[in-house]
Amino acid sequence: MKTRMNGSGVLAAATVVTGLIAGVYYAFACSVMLGLGASGDRTFIEAMQNINKKIENPVFFLTFFGALVLPAWALRTFRRDRELRLWIAAGLALYTIGLLTTMAVNIPLNNQLAAAGTAAAIKDPAAVRAHFEDTWNMWNVARALLSTGAAACLARALLMAGRRGRDAAQPAQAPVVPQTWSAV
Fold first, then answer.
1. Alpha-carbon distance values, 166 to 22, 55, 161 (Å)
2. Which residues are within 8 A (CB) of 67 and not within 5 positions of it... i.e. 6 or more apart?
3. Number of DSSP helices (H) and strands (E) in the chain, helices first
4. Reported pTM
5. Is 39 exposed, middle or buried (0-12, 13-18, 19+ CB in 10 A)?
6. Confidence of residue 26 (pLDDT cuts 50, 70, 90)
7. How far apart are alpha carbons 21 and 107 in whole angstroms?
8. Which long-range contacts (CB under 8 A, 24 or more apart) does 105-114 make?
9. Taking CA 89 as the corner, what is the angle to CA 84 and CA 93, rounded to the nearest 5 degrees?
10. What is the band of 163 on the pLDDT scale with cuts at 50, 70, 90?
């Protein structure tokens, strides 16, 4: 049996995966990095190195890149609806800026942290951590805000698409004609 995802399905999937990515960044900003921040330098470095290795997995990559591909697909699907197209494009643009931030700042910092070597062998772990932590955290908050904004734009578009679909599914009602009663 062959199935095809309709425009609202694509838009719903785009909204969900974008929200999941926003949630990852949010969780790092309000819990993971705070917990690691309370750790010693070597523990912080080792934990971040491990997280950076383990996050590179198929489930994360499907979500991370799905949040780029699915809104683009939704944009194409709703290309004839100017208002929906604007909300979807705004969501895609915000997510893309966050993705570029990740690629330009967070990933290079992750790579530098990995290149520093094992935490136990680093001569000056405080310097390695100082080079990494504040900058990584600042840009993580930026991408959390960007991806949250993207998810909000996509959610707005999804609500609008749902209303339009519901309105289109409503049967037209016959006009109400006032009746007059006359005595016979």
1. 29, 40, 9
2. 14, 17, 18, 20, 21, 95, 99, 147, 150
3. 7, 0
4. 0.85
5. middle
6. very high
7. 15
8. 105/135, 105/136, 105/139, 106/136, 106/139, 106/140, 106/143, 109/135, 109/136, 110/48, 110/52, 110/136, 113/45, 113/48, 113/49, 113/52, 114/49, 114/52, 114/53
9. 155
10. confident
Residue with tokens 């290795």: 53
What DSSP designation does 123 have?
S
C-alpha torsion 64→67→73→75, nearest 10: -150
Please give the Cα distance from 45 to 110 (Å, whole number): 10
Structure tokens at 59: 């489930």
